[in-house]
């Protein structure tokens, strides 16, 4: 499960969260191909979620996937969307490179500037389990009952390029 908040005026495709392994560059990917749609990838395959167009508003999204059932949960600004199926029984590999705001076309690199995010990203959290709507709402306000694997405040990072942290 990954949750994050973003704010941008981009209308072109961009990546928000990329979890790549040496075997699969789109092991887990949260990608926005246009202003009214999100794609959530697991193991190189994806499902789509249509959303209302938000003009100049921040968006909070969470996407969750469970290997045993293949069920993908998606929440937009705290509201759940109908669940979808994807990659039932697939195993996500553990050794990974995580990048925010850019899709990895290879492990830790292979970036396409036309898919880069320009804007603000905050409140990024990752869990190794499915989460409930109440936990999604907690993530929106940075308050949790179940601690994530890592969270925004303890997210290890390296700045590459022109990034401003506030």
Brief digest:
By secondary structure, this protein is mainly β. The chain has a single domain (2-141), classed as Jelly Rolls. It has one helix spanning 133-140; strands at 2-7, 14-20, 28-34, 37-42, 45-50, 59-65, 71-76, 79-80, 84-85, 97-100, 120-126.
Q: In words, what does this structure look like?
A:
The protein is mainly beta and 166 residues long. It has one domain (2-141): Jelly Rolls (Sandwich). 5% of the residues lie in helices and 36% in strands. It has 1 helix and 11 strands, in the order βββββββββββα. It has one helix at 133-140, and strands at residues 2-7, 14-20, 28-34, 37-42, 45-50, 59-65, 71-76, 79-80, 84-85, 97-100, 120-126. Strands 1, 6, 7, 8, 9 and 11 form a 6-stranded antiparallel β-sheet that branches. It is globular.
User: What form results from the Cα inertia axes?
Assistant: globular
> How helical, in percent, are the residues?
under 10%
Our measurement of the CA-to-CA distance between the termini, rounded to an integer number of angstroms, reads 25 Å
Number of helices: 1
Largest β sheet strand count, sense and barrel closure: 6 strands, antiparallel
Number of E-state strands: 11
Q: Structural class, please? A: mainly beta
CATH topology: Jelly Rolls
How much is the average pLDDT? 85
In the CATH hierarchy, the architecture is Sandwich
How big a fraction of the residues is strand?
Answer: 35-45%
Which sequence of SSEs, written as H and E, runs from N to C? EEEEEEEEEEEH
CATH class: Mainly Beta
In angstroms, what is the radius of gyration? Answer: 15 Å
Uncertain stretches of 5 or more adjacent residues: none
Count of spatially separate domains: 1
């Amino acid at each position: 499960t990954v949750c994050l908040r973003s704010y941008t005026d981009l209308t072109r495709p961009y990546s928000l969260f990329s979890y790549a392994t040496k075997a699969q560059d789109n092991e887990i990917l949260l990608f926005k191909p246009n202003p009214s749609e999100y794609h959530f990838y697991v193991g190189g395959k994806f499902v789509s979620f249509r959303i209302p167009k938000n003009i100049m508003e921040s968006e909070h999204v969470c996407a969750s996937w469970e290997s045993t059932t293949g069920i993908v949960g998606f929440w937009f600004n705290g509201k759940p969307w109908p669940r979808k199926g994807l990659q039932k029984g697939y195993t996500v590999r553990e050794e990974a490179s995580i990048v925010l705001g850019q899709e990895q076309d290879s492990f830790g690199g292979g970036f396409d500037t036309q898919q880069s995010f320009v804007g603000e990203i905050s409140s990024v959290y990752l869990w190794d389990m499915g989460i409930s709507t109440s936990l999604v709402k907690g993530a929106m306000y940075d308050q949790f009952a179940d601690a994530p694997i890592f969270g925004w405040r303890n997210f290890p990072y390296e700045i590459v390029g022109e990034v401003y942290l506030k």
